[in-house]
Amino acid sequence: MSDSKKIKAKFLKLLTKKNSVEFNLTDAKKVLVLKYDRIGDMIVATPIFRELKNKYPNISISVLASKGNRDVIKYNPYIDNIYTNYKNSLLKDLLSLLKLRKEKFDVCIELEHSVIPHAILRLRIINPKKVISIHKDGRYGVKGSELQLYDFYTKKDKKGHFGKIWLDTLNFFKVKPTSSKYDIFLSDEERNKAKEFVSKIESKIKIGINLEGSFREKQIQPKELRQICKGIYDNYHDIKIIILTTPNKLEKTNKIISNMGFDFVVPSYATDTILDVAALIEQLDLIITPDTSIVHVASAFDKPIVSIHENNKDSYRLWKPISTLSKTVFAKSSYGLFDYSVSDIVDASLEMINKINKV
To answer: What's residue 4's pLDDT?
Structure first.
């Protein structure tokens, strides 16, 4: 081990050292869940809030979310309080973290699968009686089990989906989950806007295509998009394809659609928030996407999905769709989406359409 790793390891062990507090988790009145990362991660975590609240109706559940993912739980009836975290600005967070410390939480649930210093620091400031974590892989020369800050760890799961892995944290509350379904709650305004948009489309099958993932290499390029749209339409005419878009991408999306020259392909209205996207997806019949966040949104409404995934089976296992109907096309590349089969996407989409028509 290098000298720098030894120093980090020693510092983390020292930082996480604490006195043990006697407390029975089933007596908990106030629980804080730390989930301040991506939109998709928050969606996958939503069963925790429902299952815990159903078992303990009087428990108060708070969530430390990010500015980017807090809208996912904006209307969630199982959550009592939402706080915003700024992961890269501890100074900006300090006042809110000190406020959380005054709340005197009985339990914090942290869902990081590795040793993460910024999470450890936040937990030290919040100072709950007990901390639950999923199994942590070692980092900086430190095993997760060596950090005294964490009172309970789930067992390492090499085969499960993150939804199941994160739900396992409730075992310590003696909760046996009845469902792993994701929850996304919408306002009437968002739902009515989506319904009005879709009501003007007379085609039998309405297909939403999301073009972009969380990074540049995870995109459906215009050439492939044209082939996908044409391939589906050549085999099934009674469709309308809606390209999902946001305000800052609307001009670019319109240009792509115009260049294709297909009257059966249209842009969506500009979706300002993830709940706008979710409301639209709820009204569609099939979703095609390279982005796991959109996969999770569609899964929340049990929509048929055709997803495109990099050639990484471990990543797929952790983030795969949970909809009743889904197909995944894998790229040849292990990072990004390069050399994937457009014909496989078309075939998978047609298979989904045939199943939809039989329902």
So the answer is: 66
Q: Which CATH architecture has domain 188-358?
A: 3-Layer(aba) Sandwich (3.40)
Which of 217, 221, 218, 278 has the alpha carbon at shortest distance from 244?
278
Phi/psi of residue 40, each to 5°?
-60, -40
Which residues, 6 or more positions from 26, have their beta carbon under 8 angstroms from its beta carbon?
A: 173, 174
Residues in the chain with pLDDT < 70?
Answer: 1-7, 90, 359
State residue 242's pLDDT score: 98
Fold of 12-173: Rossmann fold (3.40.50)
What pLDDT score does 325 carry?
Answer: 97
199: left (phi over 0), alpha (psi -120 to 50) or beta: alpha
Of 15, 348, 28, 8, the C-alpha closest to 175 is 28
- How far, in whole angstroms, is CA 315 from its chain's centroid? 13
Contact 255, 176 (CB under 8 A): no
Kindly tell me the sign of the dihedral angle through the C-alpha atoms of 252, 255, 260, 261: positive
Q: What pLDDT does 143 receive? A: 81
User: Which two tokens mark 119?
Assistant: 């999470």
For residue 35, give Cα distances in angstroms to 82, 154, 183, 294: 11, 17, 15, 18
Report the distance separating Cα 194 and Cα 281, nearest Å. Answer: 8
